[in-house]
Model the fold of this input.
Amino acid sequence: MSRIEKYFKLNMNSSTKQTSESCGCGNSSGSCGSHNNNQMSDEDFDAAVDAAIGDERKKDGFDQVFEVKMDRRTAFRKLTASLLIGAGAASTSCSVTTGGNSKEKAQIDWEEQFKGNYKLMTDNEKKGTVDRLVRSYQLRKGKNITMKSTNAAKDVLFGYAFNISKCQGYMDCVNACVKENNQDRNSEMQYIRIHEMKDGEGFKFNEADDNYYHEVPAEGHFYMGTQCFHCDNPPCVDVCPVQATWREEDGLVVIDYDWCVGCRYCMAACPYDGRRFNWSTPEVPEEEINKNQHYLGNRMRKKGVMEKCTFCVQRSRSGKDPACVEACPTGARIFGNLLDPNSTIRWVLENKKVFRLKEDLGTEPKFWYFMD
Done:
């Protein structure tokens, strides 16, 4: 095992397709004749994917909407909403007094109601739903936004490292995250939390101050940030009853906000308190809205859905650092491609004594901590 393999491993969702390193013989890879090849063939990998989601991929948006597992209340709510939207669209299209923009808006609402799960869309279908959302914003607000549907790049696996020695608790990262990701101003939603802890007492999160308002750094304290850790084996994904959240090939754990039913199972399953729930419709002043958006990232959300850190997918998939990394005044935050041997994140993992939170759970978070 190489030095870097000690710090992270890839599963089927990453760019390297690997199988387990042990078998019924009880020995490790290479110890018996059955371990001659520890990589899945392309045919076996595709077969595994088809076995998992093959049938779903063949369904259109209408079938996906009404065939997901849900309780009676949720099913009734979806059906009622669909009927109301359909009735509104029909009334608008038949009215002789309705303007062209209103008819177009009604048509967009109808198509959006019955679109499929983003994870199962073709690239053309992704472009179509993004174009509809952009046009819908133009019709509603009279302003323009840009929205991407950029897919994960090949040979990229994102990772993050946090230098506890350098963090001074300034909160610039939190403020940058809120602005970049169009988070609700009324509820003061924040994806990132900075924990102020006492020196010499270890990591006692239950005793940490997460809402300090005094001058920092405070004497006798240190600071530690948490957010979504984008696990290799995310328990939040396993418990989602409608497949509204999943792990992408570049390691990002994402959410389709329009597919989420707001059950909050993922929120309960996350051992790192990385998810947030919208109890009310998020509000951001028009002049503060970040109009550079991604479908799976910082686009405007709605009431009753989950959201969280996405490593600023709208930035990271364009070759930029997340907003929190760029804003940190002390250089405590490091982000990069784990598969790039020349990246700073790889240098940190290979040359610093790093650790991750709750490693015994087997979640394999892509977020490391270290000290100088």
Notes: The first strand starts at residue 146 and ends at 148. DSSP finds eleven helices and eleven strands in the chain.
